[in-house]
What does this fold into?
Amino acid sequence: MYLRNYWYVGAWSHELTTDAPFQRHLLGEPLVFYRTEDGEPAVLHDLCPHRFAPLSTGRVVGDAIECGYHGFTFNKTGACTVIPGMDKVPEKLCVRGYPAVEKWGWIFVWMGDPETADPATIPDFHYLDDPAWAGKGETMPVKANYTLLRDNLLDLTHAKFLHRTTLKTDAVTDFPVDAITSDKQINVRRRMVNIPQTSPLWTEVGGFTQPVTQWQNVEFTPAANIVIKMGVHSAENSTENKRIEFRILNALVPETENTTHYFWAIMRNFEINDDEMTEMTFTGNKSAFAEDQWIIEKQQAMMNALDNPTPIAVPHDKGVLRATQLVDRLIKQEQSAAE
It folds into this structure.
């Protein structure tokens, strides 16, 4: 079960062109993405109702897409406008059109009732094109349910053990987390004060040689979006005066029950014109996320082999538990409203 009346990241802006429509599954549904001749993003159900060919095998004509099998043409709202050899098109011959908004270099798709699609509720990923921040990202395909990725990001104690050469901070298990809950967000915070050292990656990036204070603020916003706000600065008793801050952006988009499109980016607010720094932080974070992918896919395989597995919670899981409860409640609300 998925939350439907929410915006999901469906693609990067650079992926959409007028000459190469492509298919991508979101929430188990096949969608075709393309860009109209006037530059607008368009997203339709990727299935021609005539003979069930995927529209993504066709071509863009103006603001419409022409099926590559028999030439049936559908505009960006999903209405059929052309049937070769026929003067009149039956009204019922249409496909579902999905509201799509291009913002910050991502294409956001509304997967629920189109009448309720409000661009003002798009999750805040403004760091992607904020001139005060620099960085880059990519899409990682993960063979696991999106909730496993969500839970991984909401409990960062795993970095001490899984990311030994990149994001490991020994002190992470010595400081408790605080989870703040609202109707629309879960905020998991940890502040590690005057610790001997930060992770290998942040040490290299920031040039720290003395004790530091490191903070993490993990913000989860339904349906499946997480912004990690984190920073490291020299401790009060340090003779250094150094500080770095990052925003790690995560859009976890279900492809199927057991596969996820993981859109992510790492942004920073220092040395923003340094291309080498951009590559260093991107490569380091990508290596850590590859380790996440490795263990999460193994976790999914084990869960598939078990009969209704139930995890055992510990205090570090505050954010995980509250996010699960929030999403479950929101899904029930959507189901009740639809009845």
In short: The chain has two domains: 7-121, 126-338.
